[in-house]
Specification:
two-stranded antiparallel ribbon, elongated, 427 residues, Rossmann fold, 15 helices, eight-stranded mixed sheet, 14% strand, alpha/beta
Length: 427
């Protein structure tokens, strides 16, 4: 397009890929901003007719009264036509020499015209014009011819090979980068397969990194924020191993909806084992002005949920359980199955080793888990384990927490945010 619009000599200086505003930026086509320029044109050639006129002015007085003055004027039109063909002014004839050869005439006598020009002078003029044309043909520069046929195909082939080599290098570098983020081989292959067509089209590494955001959108599934239901409460239970931050995360969610969004919220806890757990949540409930219930059995859980049926949201904080303690997991399962309205989020710490994440998700799989919620992103050096756990469990992601501040340090999980965090593009 640049060549067509600006000419064959136009050069592309830079290009970048951008997106128009849209839903998460994933459903809009990319646009390209290209900066191109033309080389500075050479200074225009001097006007040959102007040069000739200047030379003629210097000698006009010398031959104005000579017999060749009228002849020169009559030849002017002819010589201009010749100059147009030659695109270069011929050398000036030696008018003085011709004047010296011409016989002197009285000043009052009528000037000689082309018709009565002596034969030898006419032959001299013809010879001069012929030599000028031949000289111009010999010195005229050959016109530039653009590559055609095999030569053009060879250049295109070389360019295509270079682009292919560059794309392979970029894909290799990005694959190593994804592995260094902790993403296992299956996830790396899926992501690279998505951006491979763009690499084959010649996109540079930075552009391919941007395309990875779209690849993550196709790989990672998120539920979006919790939405309230009209006429009945939505019940959210947080479960997980000990020490992952369930109580703090429960307080963050309750504060987000009660304070920031004005929702009618209630809290329930089953954690009567950990010292100070109830007191911590009770302090948060007083600050937020929301009721707090304790459920020590599945029956009490059902009763507590029913007593707050007028609320918009009910958040349940459960006691941490070891994934190796099957008895405690079965007990927790009974609590969660006491009401079909309970939506269970499995809380996992981003600092947990990938192998341990696999075991935790597998053992907690006996519970009716519908979401994954990751905490402590600010304490982890690599976040690829989030992608791996999501791919293995096939469970969507709900929220991400990245600090202790309530309710600030929690965000809704989205593919773009997760991609930025995993690739360390946007901390």
């Amino acid at each position: 397009m640049i060549k067509v619009e600006m000419g064959a000599d136009a050069m592309i200086l830079s290009s970048k890929k951008e997106r128009r505003p849209g839903i998460l930026g994933f459903f809009t086509k990319p646009v390209f901003e290209v900066t191109a320029a033309l080389e500075t044109k050479p200074a225009p050639r001097p006007n040959p007719y102007q040069e000739r006129e200047e030379k003629m002015l210097s000698t006009r007085e010398e031959f104005q009264n000579s017999m060749l003055g009228p002849i020169a004027r009559e030849l002017k039109a002819l010589r201009e036509k010749v100059d147009n063909l030659m695109n270069k002014p011929p050398e000036q004839p030696d008018f003085q020499a011709q004047a010296a050869r011409a016989p002197a005439e009285p000043a009052a006598e009528k000037p000689v015209s082309m018709k009565n020009l002596p034969k030898e002078d006419m032959e001299e003029l013809k010879k001069f014009l012929l030599n000028a044309v031949v000289a111009r043909e010999k010195t005229a520069p050959a016109p530039y011819v653009f590559p055609r046929g095999d030569e053009a195909k060879e250049k295109i082939a070389v360019s295509a090979e270079q682009r292919e080599d560059d794309s392979l290098i970029s894909l290799t570098e990005l694959s190593e980068e994804l592995r260094s983020c902790g993403i296992e081989e299956e996830g790396v292959e899926i992501l690279l397969e998505y951006i491979k067509p763009a690499a084959e089209q010649g996109e540079e590494k930075d552009e391919l990194r941007y395309s990875l955001l779209e690849a993550f959108a196709n790989l990672v599934k998120c539920t979006g924020p919790i939405k309230t239901k009209k006429g009945k409460p939505r019940v959210i239970a947080l479960v997980g191993p000990t020490g992952v931050g369930k109580t703090t995360t429960t307080a963050k969610l309750a504060a987000m909806y009660a304070i920031n969004k004005g929702a009618n919220v209630a809290l329930i806890t089953t954690d009567n084992f950990r010292v100070g757990a109830f007191e911590q949540l009770k302090t948060y409930s007083k600050i937020m002005g929301v009721p707090l219930e304790i459920a020590s059995s599945p029956k009490e859980m059902t009763k507590a949920i029913e007593s707050h049926s007028d609320k918009d949201l009910i958040f349940i904080d459960t006691a941490g359980r070891s994934p190796k303690d099957q008895e405690k997991l079965d007990e927790l399962k009974a609590f969660l199955e006491s009401s079909p309205a309970i939506e269970t989020h499995l809380c996992l710490a981003a600092t947990t080793k990938d192998k341990d994440l696999y075991e935790i998700v597998k053992r907690f799989g006996i519970l009716p888990i519908s979401r994954l919620l990751f905490t402590k992103l600010d304490e982890s050096e690599s976040l690829g384990g989030i992608i791996n756990a999501h791919m293995r469990s096939k469970l969507p992601l709900s929220y991400l927490t990245n600090g202790q501040m309530v309710p600030e340090d929690i965000v809704v999980a989205t593919p773009r945010k997760l991609a930025n965090l995993v690739m360390r593009e946007n901390g």
